[in-house]
Specification:
about 70% helix; about 350 residues; Rhopdopsin 7-helix transmembrane proteins; disordered N terminus; two-stranded antiparallel ribbon; 13 helices; mainly alpha
Amino acid sequence: VNQRENTMNWSTYGEYNAYDGNDSLDYLPSLPDYTEDLSHTHFHINFLYIVSMLIYSVVFVLGVPGNAIVIWMTGFKMKQTVNTIWFLNLSIADFLCCLFLPFSIAFLAMDHHWPFGYVLCKCIPPIIVLNMFASIFLLTVISVDRCLLVVKPIWCQNKRTASMASVVCLVVWLLALFMTIPSVVFRTTHSDKYTSKVLCTTDYSSVAGYVKTAIHVFKLVLGFFLPFLIIVTCYSLLLFKVKVRFSKSTKTFKLILAVIIGFFVCWLPYHLVDIVLLVMPQETWLIIASHLSESIAYINSCINPIVYVIIGQDFKQKFKKSLMTVLRSNFTEDSLHGNSSQCKTRSSIDQKSISTNV
């Protein structure tokens, strides 16, 4: 689903066709140099598409059932706490992203033909944008939440409740939907003039040229760099405040940190390629790199359930437990004992205990 604007189609002599879930710019590279070995280049392009389809298939097979299990357990089987609400919403975002991957696989298998109609063209490609913004906004909120547990423990005793977490998640989803609007508005279908294929493209022809650049930069800043700055600041404050090493962290802290690292590792190549494409969009190797970076970004949607199982105790010990026991152990609120009263979210916010358990 998430192909940058536009995907190489050699049947049209180097002209790009688009199926861009991320509202990247329309890239129209020069016609290929016929002194080059085009058959060799064509082979690499086709090989890349095969690799992408394999990655999408693996992500779909692992991500749909994995995230569905987490949603079922955190949403229906476990007591609603702040932590379970965070991870429930993260899993919903990843589940939606994985669920529509067969459309992307079919799109590549049919050599960039979109047979699913105008309405689905408007709805399905923006799903990856929604996933990106919802995930990063949720991870930012979770980081702020962990920081507040240490910096403002008394406030947490009175205000940090499951109901407040639900309201925050609702706001996050509304913001993510708002950030996805450009991807929906500028999405359209049209017929390729050289072939009979129907293309699902992002069309900015009705607006000034700077608009698509502004949208692109806006996505980079709000979807990656600003959240990254906030998250780094929060965890820097945590480390400065409690003066502990990661090895002494609670399972919940380790789990959150692993999810955050996984997100940025998977999405960093995507954003780096996008930045370079703003400068030299006609480089064929960059278009190839963009496909690879998009495939890597999709991997993030299936790894979190795996991380939930592995983080904490030894994997072999956890493998012997029921999945319910594993998730309950990882998502439980930190029990921090001390002189302060019990937090409404079942977390005892004791300063001395925080310094060794956050």
